[in-house]
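Components:
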Amino acid sequence: METLIQQIINGLVLGSMYSLIALGYTMVYGILNLINFAHGDVMTVGALTSLTAALLLQSMFPGVPGWFILLGALLAAIPVCVTLSLVIERVAYRPLRNAPRLAPLITAIGVSIVIQTIAMLIWGRNFLTYPQLVSNNPINVFGATVTQTKIAVISLSAIVMLGLMLLVNRTRLGRAMRATAENPRVASLMGVNPNFVIAATFAIGAALAALAGVMLATTYGVAHFYMGFLPGLKAFTAAVLGGIGNVPGAMIGGLLLGLIESLGAGYIGQFTGGVFGSNYQDVFAFIILVAVLIFRPQGLLGERVADRS
Amino acid sequence: MFPQLRNNPTAAWVAMFVVAAALLALPYLAGMLGNAWVRALAFMLLYIMLALGLNIVVGFAGLLDLGYIAFYAVGAYTYALLASPHLAQNFAWIAQAFPDGLHNSIWFVIPMSAGIAALFGILLGAPVLKLRGDYLAIVTLGFGEIVRIFLNNLNSPLNITNGPQGITLIDPVTIAGVNFARTQNFFGLEVPSVYLYYYLFLVLTLITIVICIRLQNSRLGRAWMAIREDEIAAKAMGINVRNVKLLAFSLGATFGGVAGAMFSAFQGFVSPESFVLNESIIVLAMVVLGGLGHIPGVILGAALLALFPELLRHTVTPVQMALFGEVIVEAEVLRMMLYGLALVLVMLYRPKGLWPAPEHGVNPVVQKHSRLAA
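Structure:
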C-alpha cells in the first residue's frame, strides 16, 4: 500500500512536468502542424541556465533563503528560453512554413542537435549537481514520503496550467490562438496577425519548458546537456495521448503518462516475475504512443483525426 | 548523368575502367596517409550502404524514418550472435551442440542478418502504415530507442545480448578459406585486413547501388514515388499502398541489416553504444545533404559526411593547439554540430540537396503543406 501511494505521488510529480512540456508541443502543433523537436532541448537550456543563475545568486547573496534563489533562477531561465525559442522559430521554421512537410521536420531535428552540442560546449558533458535549495526533509503522507519540492512541483504546475486555460479560453490572445489553429487564413482575414500569434505560442511554450526544466533539475538534483531529450519525447507522447492540438488533453495526457510510467516501473518486476525490471521504464511511453496511434489516433480528448493535411 | 558518354560506348568503357582502377587503388593511396584513412574509407562504404537503404524509405517512399539505425543494430547483433562464442558460453544446450561456440559460415549469417532485419522492418512498418509523416517520425524514433533499450537490458535473466558490455570475439569474414582478419598474400602483393574489408564492402556497395537503381526504375519504384507525391492519387491508380509501404520498410531494413552484419565482422565487437539516435540522424543527414531520392546524390552525401570526421580530426585539433595551445572544441562535438547545421541549412537553402535529381517528378518535395500559404 505504501509503495502504491509512493508511486502515485512520484507519478504525479513526473506527470506534472510532462504536462508542462507537452503543452508546448501541443500548442505549436495545433497551430503549425509541426513537431517542434527542439522543444526538449529548450527545456535543457532552461534547466542549465537556472543552474548557473542559482550558483551565481548563491555566491552573491549567501544568506538568502533557497526559495528566493530558486525563484531568481527560474526568472533568469524563462527569458533565455523564450528568446531561444523565438530565434528558432524565426530562423528555422518560419521560412519553411509553405515548404513540404518533411522540410521543417528535418530542420527541427537539426536545430535540436545544434542546441545540444552548444549546451555541451557551454556546460560540459558531465552530469552537474543541482544545488539543494529547498529543504529535503521527508514529510509522511499515509506511509509514503513527500518532499517540499514535490509538493511545490505538483501545486505550481496545477496553478500554471489553470492560468494557461484562462489565457487560452478567456483572453483576446487566446481567442486569436484558437482561431489560427482552426484556420490560419480566415483568422488573418479577421485581423489576427498569424506571425504574432505563432511567436506568442512559441514564447508561452518556452516559458513552460523553462519551468519544467527547473522542476526536473531540482527534483532529481542533476542537470546535463542531454537531459531534455527523453522527457521531450515522452511529453510528445503525452500530447498525442491527450489528443494533439488540445490544451486540456496535453495536461491529462501528461499526468496519465507519468502515473503509468511510475506505476509500471514500480510493478513490472512483480508482474513478470523479475524477467523485466524497472530499467524498462522508458519503453512504456513508446508502447503507449504506438498503441494510441493505432487504436485512437485522435487521442483521448481530440476530435480531429490524425490523418488531416 | 553524363550525356556525352551515353552515345559513345568506347568512352564509356574507358571511363568505367578508370573509375574501377581508381576505386581499386584508393586504399593504397589513402594508406600513404595512414591506416586510419583506409578504415575511414571502409566505414564510408558502410555508410553509403546505410544511406542508400534509408534513401529507399525516406527518398523514394517519402516516409521519414528516424530509427533506421535499429536495423543496422539488428543485423549487427544477428551476425554477432550467430558467429561468436557468446551464446554457447551462456546456454548449456547450445554449448552441448556446439562446444566451440557458434561459428556459422557467412553464407548463412549474412542472409540471416538481412532476413531478420527485414522482419523487423515489417514489424515496425505494419502498425505505423496509416500514420502521417511527423507521427511516423516519432514512432520510428521510439522504435529505434526501444531496440537499443532492449539490447542494453537483455543480459538478465537470460544473457542474450550481454547488455552494455556488448559481444566480443566475433568471427571475421572468411570467404573460400581467405580469412579477412589477417594480412593476406596474393601473388606477392601484401593485402592487410583493412584493405580486404574495403574491397569486400566495395563489392557489396556496388551490388547495393545496382539494386537501388533497378528498384528505382521498376514498377515498385514508381509506386513508391507515386505514394510519396500523393498517396490518395496513388491509391486511385490501383497501387496497393499497404504492401508497397511495407516493401519499402523491409527492403530499406535489409540493406541496413547487411551493413550491420559487415560492421559486426569488421569490428569484431558490438555494443549498444554504436546504435544511438545520433547515428540515425547522421545517416539521415547524409541522405538529405546529398539529395533525397537521388542515388548519386546520396552516395556523394554519405561519402562527404563519412570522411568529414576524419578530416576534422586531422585539422581541428592541430589548428586549435597551434592557435590557443589547448583543445577547446573537440572534433567529435564539432562534427555533430556541423551535421545539425547541415540539416538546417540544406533544408533552408537547398532543399533538394547538393546533387539533386534532374528530372521532373523525382522530387520528394512536391506536396505542399499550405495551411499558412498566406
